[in-house]
Design goal:
336 residues; alpha/beta; eight-stranded mixed beta sheet; elongated; four-stranded antiparallel beta sheet
């Protein structure tokens, strides 16, 4: 199947400090992945791992230091964005921050219809907007003339999704779309992404720190840590049988119904983000329970273990998979 989006060695370097002591930080370090048509692909990891920076570069909000973004075999160019922004739309974390509190939400919809012209005339525009809203479980009558403050967070996030659908995009980038929504409403929005992928053939790049939601929603997943993709593959393989120590510890940190399975605090959070980003070897070496001498100085290669990509020295030599299993996790994975 032809790739819808291909990200190749995408890198973003930020510089900070004084002129005499300039420090460069790799916010995204040779990030590479593909998204297929109709696929839900997840970028997951803790805050500050580089997943949002990657999304911003894809959307054009940040210029990559190096690397390429290819959409339908066409490379994204800095000064040629109209064709890309129509086909690729975004949903953000805070639905209330998406809309001006002093404007009615329907004005945003009419402006989008006017700019992209999926319908001609006011009556046709209203019918088109209504059909789009019904895809997310709302109607034109429910939101016409209302301000953002008149909706719940869940309703406003659905409105944000409907607004993105007005241009008939083939790729939707959703950055932590349920993190600020009430827990009781999260699954309805997650189910909506599954519906859009199944019924419209739309691809979704879903960005989250919540592995339970990721497991429920996605086809393939990439785990990021300090700018690197450390493990990537099918969601069942990566989350049910995690290879990389960081993925294993993320799994372990998920609260379980059985108190005996709860997080035991093995993850060391004492190091700052800056320290980890500036590490010369493996970025996870300061926290890893299986750290070796080579991890401190040598950047691990991307190694394929079956259908899963793992960036870890544990898999570089003979007998390494067995060594990795010693720190593996047991027990079932709970979906929300």
């Amino acid at each position: 199947m032809e790739d819808l989006l291909r990200v190749e060695q995408l890198t973003k370097v930020y510089s900070f400090g004084s002129i005499t002591s300039r420090v460069q930080l790799l916010a995204a370090d040779n990030v590479s992945f593909v998204i297929k048509p109709g696929e839900i692909f997840v970028l997951a990891g803790e805050s500050g791992c580089g997943k949002t920076t990657t999304a911003k570069m894809i959307l054009g909000f940040e210029e990559p230091t190096s690397g390429t973004i290819v959409y339908k075999d066409r490379e994204k160019v800095k000064h040629e964005k109209v064709w890309f922004t129509e086909a690729v739309q975004a949903i953000f974390q805070d639905p209330f921050g998406t809309f001006n509190p002093l404007r009615t939400v329907d004005r945003y919809f009419f402006e989008t219809v006017q700019n992209y012209k999926p319908a001609q005339g006011e009556e046709a525009a209203i019918q088109f907007i209504d059909r789009t809203l019904r895809m997310v479980g709302l109607t034109y009558g429910e939101f016409a003339g209302k301000y953002p403050s008149e909706f719940s967070g869940g309703q406003l996030q659905r409105i944000s999704i409907a607004r993105a659908l007005l241009t008939s995009p083939t790729l939707l980038i959703a950055d932590e779309p349920v993190s600020m929504v009430d827990a009781s409403l999260r699954m309805s929005i997650v189910n909506l992404f599954n519906k859009l992928a199944a019924e419209l053939g739309m691809s979704v790049l879903y960005i989250t720190h919540d592995l339970a939601t990721a497991y429920y929603v996605c086809d393939r997943i990439a785990i990021m840590f300090r700018g690197n993709i450390v493990e990537m593959g099918g969601v069942e393989e990566v989350l049910m049988n995690p290879r990389h120590p960081y993925t294993q510890l993320l799994r372990e940190s998920i609260p379980q119904a059985d108190p005996a399975m709860r997080w035991k605090g093995r993850v060391n959070l004492n190091e700052t983000e800056e320290t980890e980003y500036l590490r010369q070897g493996c970025k996870f070496a300061g926290r890893c329970p299986a750290v070796m001498d080579r991890c401190i100085h040598e950047v691990p290669a991307d190694i394929h273990v079956g259908d899963v990509l793992v960036k870890c020295h544990l898999y570089a030599g003979n007998g390494a998979p067995e060594q990795a299993e010693k720190i593996g996790l047991h027990g079932s994975f709970s979906t929300p």
